[in-house]
Each structure stands twice: as structure tokens, then as C-alpha cells.
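Weekly structure sync, notes
Attendees: PL, DS, HV (note-taker this week)

Item 1: GMP synthase [glutamine-hydrolyzing]
DS walked through the input record. Source organism listed as Gemmiger formicilis. Sequence as pasted into the shared doc:
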Amino acid sequence: MQQETVIVLDFGGQYNQLIARRVRECNVYCEIYSYRTDLAKIKAKNPKGIIFTGGPNSAYLPDSPTIDPEIYNWGVPILGICYGSQLMMHMLGGKVCKAPEREYGKTLVDLNTDSPLFDTLPAQNVCWMSHNDYIEQAAPGFEIVAHTPNCPVAAAQDKARGLYAVQFHPEVLHTENGTKILRNFVYNVCRCAGDWKMDSFVENSVKALREKIGDGKVLCALSGGVDSSVCAAMLAKAIGKQLTCVFVDHGLLRKNEREQVCEVFGEGGQFDINFVCVDARDRFYKKLAGQDAPERKRKIIGEEFIRVFEDEAKKIGAVDFLAQGTIYPDVVESGLGGESATIKSHHNVGGLPDYVDFKEIVEPLRDLFKDEVRQAGRELGLPEYLVARQPFPGPGLAIRIIGDVTPEKVAIVQDADAIWREEIDKLPMAQRPSQYFAALTNMRSVGVMGDERTYDYAIALRAVTTTDFMTAEVTILPTETITTAANRIVNEVKNINRVMFDYTTKPPATIEFE
Ligand SMILES: Nc1ncnc2c1ncn2[C@@H]1O[C@H](COP(=O)(O)OP(=O)(O)OP(=O)(O)O)[C@@H](O)[C@H]1O
Ligand SMILES: O=c1[nH]c(=O)c2[nH+]cn([C@@H]3O[C@H](COP(=O)(O)O)[C@@H](O)[C@H]3O)c2[nH]1
Ligand SMILES: NC(=O)CC[C@H](N)C(=O)O
Ligand SMILES: [Mg+2]
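Item 1 (cont.): predicted structure, written out as C-alpha cells:
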């Protein structure tokens, strides 16, 4: 049976992943494609609906992103958001131009609640606006169903053709009832039934893995993190002992992490699996020596991971598949989905070398968002401490050390990080950040210790709150947590004489510190 699908066509908006996430929260499967994708390819996906995202361009300018106009005659419902709404109006004969007043931020919008989009919403709703252009005049055949004092067409619809346009961003949490608007679109307009559920995803994936792998052998790259643990559990369920899990100590792990992972997954641990722990510290340190560019470091690590897996595969003999816990944001951020720029090469996607000595790479979680992965893990019966843990990036501490990586620097950041996590873990669960760690800046400065001058490194502490890891707020922590940690770090960790707290949100910073 084919899964109901809604397709997001990406025009370069900042929130494209959020749109897909929200649609999936409504139990409808959703994928992102670039607006450049051939219409025939999109049609072949047989989607129930299409959503055009926002974007930085102006629809009325000649070189702006556009789309095959045939899409409007195809009969599949379309929802245009912001740039997407302006593009739809512009292409269908409405008037789009620079707005006399730009709107930015939370804005009270008057809605016509007879519209299927605004069903069960209040007549006035706070919506998130972010635009310089506006729709001065809706296209012929469209009825205006929302406005604000500065925006005559905040939403319009052509019910007969199934075309809908909203100037605001329903996908952003600042829009009250935003998810309800998207839900209304996928249920009331696209007539989806809502067949995207984690229990059926797990069941179908296990079945598909079994068919694909047959009696072949699989090497699963297991980090002990959420994604690869769920991936391994799924494979174990599908193919049992045909699976070998390989955990690599690349010398960039957190303090005591190797021991912890081996305890959980190794012999006498909680799982009955073939588990191998590889000490590859020297290999990685050698390759990383003298390298200080963040992207270069990522590429080196990505390649070396694969080489280690290839070597391990030779020892097992005739391994057909390499399995990785790649998830959807890894793919999109590496510049492979939609229109988003390459922000960073995730070592397991954009950082992969061109030649890989496996028949095929298997990534059963490639289409899932993080919270969906956690849910799948629960379906598979993984313990909560495994599925709920904070993410730890594959390139490890290499991307929490500014500049070149040495074993000495790794030891410094490991010790500082362990103290920071220990102090935060004293807080009640509800007060803990979504992700928190220490990073080693490349800055050295003068200090005084025991009446002696020091010239040592500064540690940066990071703590952020986020649900989707696409945007993040700085977590406001009790002062005592920060000062205690800072004190302990300068006292207990050698070569550190200064501790700083990073107060930057994402954007403009990223969560990691590289
Ligand atoms: N130390 C490691 N040993 C073996 N495989 C690894 C290691 N680190 C990362 N990987 C592989 O790279 C993939 C991507 O790493 P990533 O950190 O995104 O996922 P994760 O560690 O499984 O989950 P989490 O996001 O919770 O840390 C992992 O799913 C795993 O397959
Ligand atoms: O598996 C990973 N491989 C990577 O290469 C990688 N880079 C960043 N991250 C994690 O992604 C989230 C967002 O991070 P940034 O704000 O730094 O982009 C944060 O949770 C980061 O820890 C990675 N995870
Ligand atoms: N957020 C958007 O999609 C903006 C659309 C368009 N660039 C504008 O300024 O109005
Ligand atoms: Mg990880």
C-alpha cells in the first residue's frame, strides 16, 4: 500500500523542515523537494497535496525561483506560504509588489473562519509574519479569507481549484493554531486519512529490511547515540545475528564514553548482539594532525570512519551492507534535500568519501526527524535513558575544539565537559537544557594562579533549549550552576584559566562550537 504523501516544494525558506515536521505531526508523511524538481517526478510521487515554502526572493522579479505553471491545472491541492503564496498569486494573475509597510513578527490577523483552512479557529488569530513584499491584489477566482491592517491579502483561496495562499507562517510556533491550519489543509482540503504512525513505520521497516538483506551480512555503525541505537535495534529485530555492530573509539569521545557504550552493548550487556569496539584513536589523530578548518576536519573524520568500517568488514568476511543511523535533518543540512544551503557536512552524509567498499549503505531512519526516531525506539522497546539522551555528533570533540586537534586538547575538553554535565545533571529534569557541553576555544590569555602568571586556554560552556535543533534558545540556568562549574573547571582542569558562557542563540550561531 502506498503511503499518503504531502510534498513540500522548497523555495529557499528558513523553515522548510519545520513545515514537513508539522505535517508529520498530523500523521501525514511529508517530504521536501527543491522547486527545481521536475514536475513529472513530483507527479510520480502521487502526492495528496503540495506546499510551497517561503523564500528570500521577490516573486515579481524576472530571475526569482518559479515553477512549471502546469502544476496549477493538475488538480492536486496547493498551499502557498509567504513567498509561496506570493508566487502563486503572481503566476495566476494577481498583483504582488513591495509592501508599503513590511510586517515582521507576531501580528493579529482577521480570519474568515468559513474557510476550510481556518475551520475551528477564532476570528482573530496571532500569526507570525516575515515579509517585505505583499499581495496587493489576489488573482482572479480567489476569495480573500484573511487580512491585517497592513496586509489586504493575508490569505486567499480558490476552493474549486484547491489553491490556498497564506502570507504568514503557520509552521512557526509563534503562529497560534499554526499546526491546526496545516492539519486543516491536509485533512479538510487534501482529504488525507492520516496513515503515518510510528508503530506501522517500525513494522513496515523491519519487514522491508528483511526482504532487502535476505541472508546477507550487515555491519552497523553504532555510536551508542539515539539514532544508531534505534537503527541497530531495528536491524537486530529484522535479521538477528547476521548483524555486527561496530563502535569506533576515534579518540574524540566524551570522558568515559567508551566504557559506558561497551557496558551497555558489549558482552554481558543488555543486548544479545555481535558487538565490536575498535580502538582507532591513533589513526584519527594522525589524520587530523595540523588540520584546523572545520569542514576539512569533518571530511577527514567521515572518510576515516568508513575506512575503519571497511577494515572491520574484512575481518567479519563478506559483509554486504553498511548500516548507519542517518536521519532526515542530516540529509537536509548536508545540502541534499530541498534548497537549503550546505550548512555543514554531516560526517555520515556530505562527509562520506566518493568510494565506499560496501555493496550498499542501509539507512532505515533516513526519512525520520529526531522525535520520530525516539518514538520508533520506544516502539522497539529500547530503554528511556537511551532514547531520550542528548545528541552527540559523530565527529565528536573534534568539532568542539577550535583549531587543530591534539590528544592533549581532547583531554582538556573531556574533563571540562564532564564537570559541566555533572553540574547540570544535578538540576531537576525540567530545568535541564536540550543540549549542553563544553568547547575548547583556541584563545589563550593571561591569568594568575598561586601568585604565578599563567597563559592558558579558555573553555566555553554551552547550554541550549530546543525541540527541533534547527533553532535554539540559550537556556537560562541558575547562576550557581554556572559559577560552580566555572570554579571547578579552572581548579580541576589543567591548562584552563578562564571559563566563558556562550549566550548566543541559533541563528545566528549554531549549537555546536566549531
Ligand atoms: N563512534 C562511532 N562509532 C560508530 N559509528 C558511529 C560513531 N559515531 C557516529 N557513528 C555513526 O554515524 C551516525 C551519525 O551519527 P549521529 O551522532 O548523528 O547519530 P547517533 O550517534 O546515532 O545519535 P545521536 O544524534 O543521538 O548522537 C550514527 O548513527 C552512526 O551510524
Ligand atoms: O550526528 C551529527 N553529525 C554531525 O556532523 C553534526 N553536526 C552537528 N550535529 C548536531 O546537530 C544539531 C544542530 O547542530 P548545529 O546547530 O551545530 O548545526 C546539534 O544537536 C549538533 O550536536 C551533528 N550531529
Ligand atoms: N518569508 C518569505 O517568504 C518572504 C517572501 C518575500 N521575499 C517577501 O519579502 O515578502
Ligand atoms: Mg551521535
